[in-house]
Amino acid sequence: MNIVVCIKQVPASSDVKIDPVTGVLIRDGNNTKMNPYDLYGLETALRIKEQTGATVKTITMGPPPAKSVLEESLWMGCDDALLISDRKFGGADVVATAYTISQGIKKLGAFDLIICGKQTTDGDTAQVGAEMAEYLGIPHVAYVEKIVEVKEKTIVVKAQMDKTIETFEVKLPCLITIDKGHVSPRLPSYKRGKMLKEQNIPMITFQDVDDQDETHYGLKGSPTQVERMFPPERNTDKVVLQGTVSEQVAKLTEILKDKKYI
To answer: Virtual CA dihedral for 57, 63, 67, 70, nearest 10 degrees?
Structure first.
């Protein structure tokens, strides 16, 4: 069984810089970490590997420093990794991102299962996984919280819907997105890190993908255009109400009415 896990390098804090021209995050590799939801996807894949002997490969799209999350995945127990990186891929929205990663996955060869985190903490759209499945022409299930059984030609999963937990049996190859469920992500192995220190992680660029139409990638391939993006302004203004409880309630009510909250 061949498993591909999609991971992403995201800002480690809310203190991020934004390009004033393009309106996108500046990803320079500093103050970053692996997307937390992707850790659950990795752990799910590694547990399947332990049960079935599957091969687990990770893939990410980003600038060259994003290679660090791929190294982390190898130290956790994955077998191989691939970086998709090119300036022509920069500024992509969910549509262009999903298309680019799907092109990268095709370069990895045959696969049976693609696993993604439910969403990323920098974009929070939870759309890339489903769109990748559509581009690849395979079935998908979102918000999976548990792998029930891995069969020869299908996988049985439990997914958290809005008001119910539903069980699906999906034909392979397929894609699933993992929610925070029943697994606890493992830590990278220091021993594996030392052993794999010199392992080369291949990188593919625009010249390597099958589709050479630049309008399908990056800003050119993004139907969603950011009009403006900016860090939120911090407001530390405060009002201290004095008087009896009844007086404070009356003053608070008046403030709320003035601001049209009530």
So the answer is: -30
Within the chain, strands assigned E span: 2-6, 9-11, 32-34, 55-61, 80-84, 113-117, 140-150, 154-160, 165-171, 174-178, 203-204
3-state secondary structure of 239: coil
User: Is 105 in contact with 132 (CB distance < 8 Å)?
Assistant: yes
The pLDDT score that the predictor gives to residue 237 is 85
Question: Is 9 within a domain?
Answer: yes
> By the 8 A CB rule, do 144 and 176 touch?
yes
Please tell me the distance from the alpha carbon of residue 157 to that of residue 195, in angstroms, as a whole number.
34
Q: By residue range, what is the domain housing residue 22? A: 2-216
| Residue 118 located in a structural domain | yes
Is residue 223 assigned to a domain? no
Number of domains composing the chain:
1
Within a domain: residue 254?
no
Dump pLDDT digits (tens) for 129-184.
Answer: 999 999 999 999 999 999 999 999 999 999 998 889 999 999 999 999 999 877 89
Percent composition of the chain: helix, strand, coil (DSSP 3-state, to 5) = 30, 25, 45
Reported as a single tens digit per residue, the pLDDT across 79-102 is: 999 999 999 999 899 999 999 999
Check if the beta carbon of residue 174 is closer than 8 Å to that of residue 155. Answer: yes
| CATH number for the domain that contains residue 146 | 3.40.50.620
pTM for the model: 0.81
H or E element, residue 252: helix 245-258
Going by pLDDT thresholds of 50, 70 and 90, the confidence category of residue 46 is very high
Cα–Cα distance list, 145 to 5, 177, 186 (Å) = 16, 9, 17
